[in-house]
Design a protein that fits this description.
Blueprint lengths: L2 H8 L3 H9 L5 E2 L1 H10 L4 E2 L4 E5 L4 E2 L11 E5 L3 E12 L2 E5 L2 E3 L6 H20 L6 E8 L8 H7 L4 H11 L4 E4 L5 H9 L7 E3 L4 E10 L16 H14 L8 E4 L12 H9 L4 E3 L6 H9 L3 E5 L14 E7 L6 H8 L3 E7 L10 H13 L4 E2 L2
Parallel strand pairs: 1-8, 4-17, 4-18, 9-10, 9-12, 10-11, 13-14, 13-15, 15-16, 16-17
Antiparallel strand pairs: 2-6, 3-5, 6-7, 6-12, 7-8
Helix pairs in contact: 1-4, 2-4, 8-10
């Protein structure tokens, strides 16, 4: 059984159950306690403001998916901050951060990730100890960026790179640049995105052990008021500012169409079963097809940044919607696995958004091309929002 499937099966028991099985104390340092501790030890750096976000209804759809409605409305988002905890133990593979007998919730992204860290550690940590890689290290100052979902592009961008805003605020205030604790082996998109943000090999420490003590652990806050499994829709703005204009300037955008179809033909799931038919219909409207795995990070940023209309199945490739500007987004949504995170992202950058509910034979999708054409007409027109009859 895959580890992620085990995590889902834990259901409501989740992290407390997993830590009990592993023999750990599951008491945690909450965001409020982290803030108070950092204020008391003089390391607290507040930045930004409390904000509210109003999410309107999707601009167009054929068949309503009621599960999307939970994203609609006005939400309050907390003010971000970064602080330091002293003498923190990192335990596991991937690790949790412990201060005394409590684990530091904001250092490990979310409850789902914390649960999976425990499950993965129960399997992986003994191997590292037996192989000699479990010896304790000590770092002077570091930030924890490694977790169980970090190799997924969405989780890397939304839950890892966005945290570097707090790290850079900390570096600007203190004149110190903490070590970034990353996974044992970085993917190509992880290496490239860190390089685009100015981080070099000497700034990183690959997690190869099962235990480490950090004299000063730098902890950027995680804001999850809208939907606990997903980060604040405002978290991406710093990344957009840092990377968008550079990508447009340095990438060759002349070879990109403004009408973009993102294919998942090389993925393990949510492939479009009738993709040749879909691509033929899209081509008649001037769309070109792209596979993001064949492109560099800078190229994908530029592709999204210059796009006027994007069509794609639900998937991590849509993460780069954060770089779009007044685009139309048409997402193929599995009818029985609704997730509105990209609807949320698209609305935070002012995009038009529509979804097309799709049947799911097995792990893939079937797109009704006639419904697709109706959606395209609405998306390209931008003057006929609302339900499509």
């Amino acid at each position: 059984m895959r580890v992620k499937s085990i995590g889902r099966r834990l259901g409501e028991r989740g992290f407390p159950y997993a830590t009990k099985v592993a023999g750990l104390n599951c008491a945690r340092i909450t965001r409020t306690e982290l803030y108070d501790r950092a204020a008391r030890n003089g390391s607290l750096i507040d930045y930004g403001e409390f904000e509210s976000v109003t999410v309107p209804e999707p601009d167009a759809f054929v068949d309503e998916l009621p599960e999307m409605n939970r994203w609609i409305g006005t939400h309050t988002i907390s003010k971000p901050f970064v602080g330091v905890l002293s003498d923190v133990r990192l335990v596991g593979s991937p690790p949790l951060a412990f201060s005394g007998s409590k684990y530091v919730a904001d250092a490990s992204v979310s409850r789902n990730v914390q649960t999976l860290n425990v499950i993965n550690s129960a399997r992986e940590t003994p191997k590292r100890i037996l192989s000699g890689n479990g010896r304790g290290e000590r770092l002077e100052e570091a930030v924890l960026l490694h977790h169980s979902w970090v190799d997924g592009y969405f989780h890397w961008v939304a839950e890892t790179l966005t945290r570097l805003e707090g790290v850079e605020r900390y570096a600007a205030e203190t004149g110190r640049r903490p070590t970034l604790i990353v996974g044992p082996e970085l993917t190509s998109f992880q290496r490239e995105s860190l390089a685009l943000l100015g981080y070099e090999r000497e700034d990183l420490r690959n997690w190869q052990t099962a235990h480490c003590t950090v004299d000063r652990l730098v902890v950027p806050s995680m804001r999850r008021e809208i939907d606990p499994p997903n980060p604040s829709p405002f978290s991406h703005r710093w990344l957009r500012t840092r990377l968008r204009e550079t990508a447009l300037r340095e990438a060759d955008t002349s070879r990109f169409s403004e009408r973009v179809y993102i294919s998942r033909g090389d993925a393990a799931s949510r492939r479009v079963v009738n993709e040749p038919e879909v691509e033929a219909r899209l081509e008649s409207y001037g769309f070109d097809s792209y596979r993001l795995a064949e492109m560099s990070v800078q190229e994908t940023i530029a592709l999204f940044a210059q796009a006027d209309c994007l069509v794609a199945p639900h998937g991590a490739g849509l993460t780069d919607l954060i770089y779009t500007d007044d685009a139309a987004v048409l997402e193929f949504m599995p009818r029985d696995r609704v997730n509105g995170v990209y609807f949320m992202l698209s609305k935070q950058v002012g995009d038009w958004y529509g979804y097309l509910a799709c049947d799911r034979p097995g792990v893939d999708l079937v797109v009704d091309v006639d419904d697709l054409e109706s959606m395209l007409e609405a998306a390209l027109d931008r003057e006929r929002p609302g339900r499509i009859a």
